[in-house]
Amino acid sequence: MIVLDSITLQEFVWANRFGYSPWVSSHEFALDGALHIETAKKQAGRSIILTSDSEPLSVFTALEAHAEAAGVTPFQLTINSETFTVIWDHSATPISGTPLIDYSDADPDYIADITLKLITV
To answer: Which superkingdom does the taxonomy of this entry point to (predicted)?
Structure first.
């Protein structure tokens, strides 16, 4: 189960869970042609992307309100009993979704293709 701050996200999945490397490396050639390599373990900045095929509008609006209210304030994200301190990733759109069915005179009941973008701090 996933809990974002106090919002339970039962149908969401961690889309980019696998394939992450905690290491960062920089390569640079000196003027004499020697290769200098610097490598270190990342201290923060892991991207966490959560997705859901479809959620009720109330869940989506609660997430939008959280993203707006939190701004860049860190909060807790728990995924399968592992807790991360994260912020919304505002370098791109932090939350997106599409109405399942568009209505001209009312709000949709469900939002589809939801993506939440977070980053560890």
So the answer is: Bacteria
